[in-house]
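To the wet lab folks,

You asked to see what we're planning to order before we commit. Fair enough. Below is the target structure as tokens, and below that is the sequence we designed to fit it. If anything looks off to you, flag it before the synthesis order goes out.
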């Protein structure tokens, strides 16, 4: 079974990626037989407040970006350097289709910056995502720290994702609709998708109305029920994304994800590079 294209990969050009390599990711994609890969580097637009007890526990590449007030402010993407690397890889790997791209974090909160970035550069793939939630005067990144119960956090997250999807922010694919599950506690009640069906379906209906695609992100396998609900609300398109931050994770879990998506009623596109469609 041939694998889908990987539409969500990070390399050394994403600020939070310490083991990334665009060249290595291309080599891995070819090894797996992927038809194409999209390097959707982070454009994180929202600063996060890191509580003082957590700061010493952060990885070095996070800690060095802390301001004296404990706010982590992600740097801007070096678009020129990144795009030059894309062109180098296109020359070096002519048998692999390589898409340029960007993952915009909370673009509906930062429209002038997000719009200016997209106006200045013709990216092939644009993902929209939510990584943080308001916390008083600041924001918290969901997988770094949160003192909220996991179910409450997921509902708040899906409410913010709804705001993103209902906005006119310019993006084609909603990334990792299940992002808070990455930090769902191992102890305590397990995650049950049906407990959040109403919230997921509300987001999915809005996503369908917007004409955008749903990403099946394999970093933490997307619950099959969510993909089924996407089909039931009339969702038209599915993209696949490993969210890899190192070459060895490119295409991770794609065989299982493709089987799941197919079982929910979606089929391969007209070419191996296309979204899967109903």
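Sequence we intend to order:
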């Amino acid at each position: 079974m041939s694998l889908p294209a990987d539409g969500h990969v990070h390399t050394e050009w994403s600020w939070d990626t310490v083991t990334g390599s665009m060249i290595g990711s291309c080599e891995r994609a070819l090894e797996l037989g992927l038809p194409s890969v999209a390097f959707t580097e982070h454009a994180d637009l929202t600063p996060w407040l890191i509580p003082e007890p957590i700061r010493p526990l952060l990885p070095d590449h996070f800690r060095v970006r802390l301001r004296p007030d404990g706010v982590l402010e992600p740097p801007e993407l070096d678009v020129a350097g990144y795009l030059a690397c894309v062109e180098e890889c296109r020359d070096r790997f002519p048998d692999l289709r390589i898409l340029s791209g960007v993952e915009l974090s909370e673009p509906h909160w930062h429209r002038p910056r997000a719009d200016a970035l997209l106006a200045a550069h013709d990216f092939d793939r644009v993902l929209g995502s939510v990584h943080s939630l308001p916390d008083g005067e600041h924001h918290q990144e969901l997988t770094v720290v949160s003192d909220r119960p996991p179910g409450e956090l997921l509902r708040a997250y899906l409410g913010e994702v709804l705001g993103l999807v209902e906005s006119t922010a310019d993006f084609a694919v909603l990334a990792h609709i299940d992002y808070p599950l990455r930090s769902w506690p191992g102890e305590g009640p397990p995650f049950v998708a049906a407990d959040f069906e109403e919230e997921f379906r509300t987001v999915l209906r809005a996503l369908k109305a917007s004409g955008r695609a749903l990403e099946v992100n394999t970093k933490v396998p997307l619950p099959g029920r969510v993909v089924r609900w996407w089909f039931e609300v009339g969702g038209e398109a599915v993209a696949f994304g490993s969210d890899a931050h190192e070459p060895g994770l490119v295409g991770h879990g794609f065989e299982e994800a493709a089987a799941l998506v197919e079982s929910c009623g979606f089929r391969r596109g007209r070419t191996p590079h296309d979204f899967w469609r109903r």
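Structural context that might help your review: Residues 216 and 240 are 5 Å apart (CA to CA). The mean pLDDT is 96.

Thanks,
Computational group
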